[in-house]
Amino acid sequence: MDEPGWQERKIDAGGVTLHAMEQGEGPLVLMIHGFPGLGYSWRHQMAPLAAAGFRAVAIDSLGYGGSDRPAAQHCYTADRMNAYLLALLDAYGADRAFIIGQDFGAQYAWNMAVRSPERVRGLIATIPYDYDMAGRAMLGSAQRLPPGAPVPLEAASPDYRPTDRFAAMARNHFLHLHYFQTIGPAEEELAGRSAEFLQRLFHALSAQGDLWAWKAVSSQGNGYLDALPDAPPLPWPWLSEQEFAALVKGYDHPDPARRFIGGLNSYRTADANWEIGHAWADADVTVPTLFVYGARDPSFGFFPEWEERLRRRVPGLRDIVPIEGAGHFVQQEQPGAFNAAIIPFLRALL
């Protein structure tokens, strides 16, 4: 693997320290990963963005990699995350920036575009607006079900708190959204099997994977590794052994309970974020937006009717681009096609 062309630095982002990779000069492009992921997940975008005249910055989100990993859940709520990211822009001296988000990073990016639109020059997301697990599926703030109605088996909804919905879904089969809510079991299960867990999860979420195999697994007495299929040996077409080793190393931490704390606490703030999000649930996204997604992303099984609702609720939408041969990790699985989609969009907004 070639030596990376980027530099690394630690940045004070409003009381927390975030680790960043950066390359190039020009308008700031901030890339935010999800779970599982790291700033390293954007390795294929760094040099192309720099060559196109941008300052590419990929962070380890709070709780991941070289960034701070606080244990307290309240450090990861949507309002806190938005404040950290705005402080990061301030640290770079950027009044506005282009924001690219994947998975939880897309949730943070959509939030920035809605709650701080004056700071967002353009938005690129790989997960639909307000379909994150603490969202309302772009249906607005008003409840649609009468009091006492059965809890909907939906990951995103204006009716019932997220953990109520997750629990209802988990009565039918294993569901990580529910499993991660309890402090302790996931930390204990995953900490000693980090590499195995990450390899299985990366594959299950990829275009070749089978995330929904969990439908055959009961929630009772089972953990996530019981629900995730085995993964083929590395290398894969989109992930080398060296790249995977770098990702595994990025999750290591002397305290086993904090190896995956960024992801776990992002799930555990679902109810808090749903309450916080009520004030913004009827807001449309007006900043220039490009939606780029893996055409075989298995997570889209959680997003019914996403395209029609996205076109209605995102008046700033410029285009929707499916990337063939890509799953959840679109920027890693098909980096050439992903870069070919995002760079013209960014250049057009200069």
Description:
With 350 residues, this protein is of the alpha/beta class. The protein has helices spanning 43-51, 78-91, 104-115, 162-170, 176-179, 185-191, 194-205, 224-227, 241-251, 261-268, 270-277, 306-313, 330-333, 335-348; strands spanning 7-12, 17-23, 28-32, 55-59, 97-101, 120-125, 289-294, 317-323. The chain has an 8-stranded mixed beta sheet, sandwiched between helices. Helix 3 links the parallel strand 5 (97-101) and strand 6. The protein is globular.
Task: Name some characteristics of this structure.
single chain; 8 strands; 35% helix; alpha/beta
Classify the helix fraction into a percent range. 25-40%
Radius of gyration (Å): 19 Å
| Structural category | alpha/beta
Side by side, the strands of the main sheet go 1-2-4-3-5-6-7-8
- Tell me the fraction of residues in β-strands, as a range: 5-15%
Q: Quote the average pLDDT.
A: 96
Principal-axes shape call: globular
Largest pleated sheet: 8 strands, mixed
Q: End-to-end span in angstroms?
A: 33 Å
Low-confidence stretches: none
Question: Count of DSSP E strands?
Answer: 8
Q: Count the DSSP helices.
A: 14
Spell the H/E element sequence: EEEHEHEHEHHHHHHHHEHEHH
